[in-house]
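Q: Got a minute? One more chain.
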Amino acid sequence: MDIIYRMMKIFRDYCGVLNEESIRKNFVLIYEIIDEVIDYGHAQLVTTENIRQFIVNEPVLIQPKTQAKKQSSSWRPKFFKSSTVASTAIQKPIQKLDAKKTKTNEIFVDIFEKLTILFNANGMVINAAIDGVIQMKSYLIGNPELRLVLNNDLTVGRTSTGERGSVTLDDCNFHECVDTRDFEAMKTVTINPPDGEFLVMNYRINGEYSAPFRLYPFIDEESGYRLKFTVKVRAQFP
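A: Always. Here it is, folded:
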């Protein structure tokens, strides 16, 4: 599964997006990438940075679908700045970065969290866990050194001396490009970002926390051969 996930990231780095249309239009490029990544059935080069010098074909860009202009008011709240970059900015492919042709250096940071919660019949939480990742996509030239500062009250591993209200991670791991020498003392990590998409950090939180919603199941026996099953979702935040 790990090799499939790494190949998906490489495909997104070169094609911008990974869908049926991009695979169809970039079939030759994807075949070339697979040929460099896997040799005689064994994974060899599994990062965008390692295979870049061997890739010859250029990607065929997939143009985003244009939507009809809405007739509604163009008013926007003040906190939406006109200079805010759209979320589709990370869909542009990683090409050969040239300092003379590239006007700006960009790096995008995303935090994804997956909640796994087990409720009982009364809607009470039995077990809960959060699996999260800090993901980056780098368009920087020259791979400069970066620093990422995390919460000062962040702790790894549950201890009896942990302060109330602190962010406690049960376990975490970092990408090989991350230097964690200052993590314990200063909650700071140094990153030498490779080209393209990569996971800076994976973390997991088990135990009690405020779930954003609750589920309430209801079973009604409508007849001797028919049951009606209803699930209601109630938000736990305003």
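A: The radius of gyration is 23 Å.
Q: Perfect, thanks.
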